[in-house]
Amino acid sequence: MKKTFLLLAAMMMAVCSYAQVWTAAPGNGVQRKAPAKVNKATITPTDGQMWWGYMNESELSNSTTIGIGSPTSFITGIYVPANNEQIGGATVKAVRVYIADELASTMSNMKVWISKSQPANINNADYVQDIKETLTDGANDFELTTPYEVNNGAFYIGYYVSSTNAYPIMSCGSDAIDAFLICAPGQVAWSDLNGNGFGKLAFQILVEGANIVEESATPSDFPTVYTIAGNEVTIGVDINNNGSNTINNISYTITANGTTTEETTITTPAIAFNSKASVNITFPASADPKKVENEITITKVNGVANGASNKSAKGNIINMTDVPTVVPVIEEFTGTWCGWCPVGFVGLQSIHDTYGDKVVLIAVHDSDPMTISDYNPILNQVSSFPSSFVNRAYDVYPHPVYLKSAVSQVLTEVVPGSVTATAEWADADKKAIKVNTETTFYYTDDNGQYGIALVLIEDGMKGTGSQWSQTNNLSHNANYNNSDFSFWYNAASKVTGLEFDHVAVAAWDIASGISGSVNSTITASEVQKFSYTADISGNSLIQDKSKLKVVALLIDNSNGRILNASETSIQGDASGILSIGTDAAQPVEFYTIDGKLLNAPQKGLNIVKYADGSVKKVMVK
User: Fold this and answer.
1) φ/ψ (deg, to 5) at 298
2) Could you tell me which of 407, 410, 430 has the C-alpha nearest to residue 544?
């Protein structure tokens, strides 16, 4: 059953969204193999013909149905890029539409369409054919009145249907690019559902004159991987089968630093035609702590020469001298107007209770009294409230279960660098904050693409008036009658008197980092120092400067992800480090009285190590 728990939970929580979103059928949906029965128009390919598509029949055992939660009409299909090596010279003769159990009777007004662009409505398509045949559960084959000559051009092809069911569109298998395009005219714009966990559209086309070789394997480029210098590393490389025979084994070579390995043969998972699978490939060790581009070339498939036109793929392996500790960052997007945002309120508290200062928490408010425009470059990427980004690598509904899962994943990941930050008031009136960062990378790179963004967060924010009242859809909602959500379950639909923690009240270059904060030339284990004075003189969001903290985010601008982070209090604020800041040397590390390293000083007695090597006991009130 494919991601059923996550999808059902997301629907159960009824995410506050600006628009309708695609969801899978609640309950059991289809979640079983589509029936084998077909209608009388079933087409058996003749010589030179074959059924082609991004899905195959074996994937029907892992299927579901998709919709927007209400009956409507849908346009759905697939996209075939220009110069497709398999069907670029072929002719499309027919289409096959798979319909899930008991849904054919809910469908009407079906049409087949082909177009060079996505139609805003079905009448805008280049080719439209009404379907007069009676629909049946399972495979429905429809011959095109006018066959379509591909001529190596790009095109969209699919079907239109109206349904009295809220989730009528069948999908199967795992996601793939261009394999599931859908819109609900007048309600939801065109979407490519790749990456959403819904799989591929259960749809195929009958082509004549396709160029299909028997043995063909094309690897996909893989993302940057980190390892300790001198160690081999195993990477899951996606292998696509564009050949008619199932792939059972491959032979390959790897080229790095101008050297090519001897051919290696390994057994793979069975990869059917037009399917892909992740295959574990072991890449050779490199002793140099630097980024090395590795290229894998698949030379043979099932023992014979690989017939693919593209046999190679590339990726970078960063070999490091050490592995730094990772500090995960949760950016939660919320607002007092959002009735489901108490889920995120509980989610952040749960993470704080579990991980303490090992995880950085940032609550980003929108359209309420704590709204922060500095965060707009990231807020513009948010499609619904509540939601959260974990290290900007995972888009997570901020329920405690999902946040803990994502944080656990980040804590297992290897990153190439670390950052530490200290902060002090730059003036007696506390109108500016001087932030000092130290960034260390564990590999050498002449073209690093990193930056440090700064965020100012405040705890205990509160106010009066209706806009400070948190809307609460969890109130007496049976789905939240448990210990985690007991406060919100028992509370009214509007909750007053709350204090909001981890609130972002200012940010600097939040998307890519401050210019010059990290040098592009990186030397392994070398500490890069950076100082920035943050002006807060005009900031009207801040309520209590004694409750402010500074967060430094180390950002990888090659992919936009947060690699690491550091959170620190501001020296000299009213909550007070009594002696820090009076010495000319800067504090660099904080410890508990029993020697435990801290990210920032805590209330009570702290052991503080300074840059000049001195160590002092400091009391924080």
Assistant:
1) -85, 110
2) 430
